[in-house]
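From the pipeline queue, job 12 of 40. The input is one protein chain; the requested action is below.

Action: predict structure.
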Amino acid sequence: MAKRLQARRLDGIDHNPWVEFVKLASEEADVVNLGQGFPDFSPPEFAVEAFQHAISGDFMLNQYTKAFGYPPLTKILASFFGKLLGQEIDPLKNVLVTVGAYGALFTAFQALVDEGDEVIIVEPFFDCYEPMTLMAGGRPVFVSLKPSPPQKGEPDSSSSWQLDPTELASKFTSRTKAFILNTPNNPLGKVFSREELELVASLCQQHDVVCITDEVYQWLVFDGFQHISIASLPGMWERTLTIGSAGKTFSVTGWKVGWVLGPDSLMKHLRTVHQNSIYHCATQCQAAVAQSFEREQLHFGQPSSYFVQFPQYIQRCRDHMIQSLQSVGLRPVIPQGSYFLITDISDFKNKMPDLPGAADEPYDRRFVKWMIKNKGLMAIPVSTFVSVPHQKFFDHYIRFCFVKDEPTLRAMDQKLQKWKAELMP
């Protein structure tokens, strides 16, 4: 066709690093996939049973439910999170069920970000925030978390990565429409402290900015750290959209059930986008998530709670991976939460700086390609999680996912032990 086919909103966002690196890994034999963020083990038994009941019970669950969410699900989300956020949440006005947290984010950007609006994004960031801002016509404004040097003898930790208050304040202008918060952060695993959240909240209120907070990993917090929802801080419920994910909450990423919680003054605009795009999410998956939350509400805070047991198990997986990576000279940054950790590859960058690849290709991308081909391990380069001008500051980090079962971790150990033997003089 002679006419331009691609909509201008897609200019510059057509490359997807996930497709590239997954394809590379699939082309090599026996690669251990530690790049993609999904569990490779069964969900909790109660969630599987809830789904089985949903597909074999009430035949009407094969049909449409209410467009903005299956009523038992919106009701339990309102009850469950209302207590956590200190709000009276109306299931009809303050809850929207979406096709995963990804759908929640897209709906929020489309509903609130207009042509020329500025959106502040903390980097490193989950990689969809920038293209979603651009597709809505907005302008991304980046502010970087920066690491403090660790104390002598202490390992690097995501808690040492901080926003500079003066730099952060400078990013807010009269054109700022939204601030994107991700805690626990992907890819870094940082859990924002109350003090840090209070700083963000103060700036959002001062400049009349909406906060879109991605909290899909809120139950995966380690080492005694505490997840705090910014919507629970004084004055923030009225200007915050809180996004969650059943996929990350119950280890069912393929169900693609997410939600947004917020004031009706914001939510009504998201509902307009939702009803004119997705319209409706899979009823049976919603029913299973509702039943799973009902179970967790009964067990909340008790040793029998999945939200208590799961992070304990995953912390052991995290610690296993940290020790294994350290054995070959990689330097993990210990995460406070999430599925992920990043590891410093500076020593390798110094020893073998001239890996194959394009001259302008960030080092971490070349290193991951080399590692896939030569070591049988897949990770994701951290430069994919930052803006192009700042890639040079992050190109000595790669991201691993540690939410994997024991056979996968043992396979990783075998690859790393072979690598370690090759490094021996």
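Job complete. The mean pLDDT is 95.
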